[in-house]
Write a structure and sequence with these properties.
The chain is α+β, with helices and mostly antiparallel strands. About 15% of the residues lie in helices and about 50% in strands. The chain is built from 4 helices and 18 strands. It has a 7-stranded antiparallel beta sheet with strand order 3-12-13-17-16-15-14, sandwiched between helices. It has a 6-stranded antiparallel beta sheet with strand order 4-5-9-8-7-6, with helices on both faces. A 3-stranded antiparallel beta sheet has the order 1-2-18. Strand 6 (about 70-75) and strand 7 (about 80-90) form a beta hairpin. The radius of gyration is 22 Å and the shape is elongated.
Length: about 280
Amino acid sequence: MLRFCDPYELDVPDDLVDGTGYVFEEAGGGDADRLTLEVEELPAAVDPDDVIAAARTSAARALGGGVGWSEGQVDTGLGPARTLAITDPEIVGGVWVAALRGPAGRMWTLRFESAREWADTVFLALVAAVGGGSTPPGWARRQAHGTPLALPTWLRPPRVYRFARPGGEARCVLDQGSSDMPEETEFEAWGEAAPGELLVVHALASGKARLAGAEGVYGQWRLDRCDPYGTVLGSTWARVAAAPGLSLRLVVIEREVESIGAAGFLAIAGSVARR
């Protein structure tokens, strides 16, 4: 299945679920804008009003008195969204929350934090654009969980995109901020050796690979978890393709049984392209 990882795309097995942390942030930190988007499988009895009520209760506990609340509804490309604005009359900006049930029954929750005077207008426009709609001037088309969005260009998309099987047997990570081969500390995390176990790293292969149209390199390793006597308790296969000129790295990790394998890994690497 083709997945959008702004500004790249890659083709990964259909059973790898999107587990990316979709946080869109303005550069600078501090009072910089921040949009957090979560998609969850919640019981059918939980509706958007329940999510908004929980957000209101949580904010009341954290902020105390003097905070204003206003609720509303916005039509989106996925259906109606319930909204909540949390503002203080003495402070510019605030926090805005939206919740909606998508066509697949999953709950979408958007949380927008901003110190801009007109942040409420930005929030309502970006909620209305979930699932399709017009793109205001100065905004850009984005995606999250395969669904189109429109966001201000100052909200930068995630740097790291993650896809995995629900059981964690296979993981795929596209990292747009790194182009290095793994070091020992990463092998330790991927091999998941328990206290008292040894991790033995076996280099299997290396070579050149195309990644997003650039000449890259790849490496393949088997990571064996062993007891103190050297008996192998389990294995993990770690494969990395990196394009140093693009600061781009693809990581595929499989535990116990190889289902993607070396050929599948190289096929995923070869599918990475700039949109």
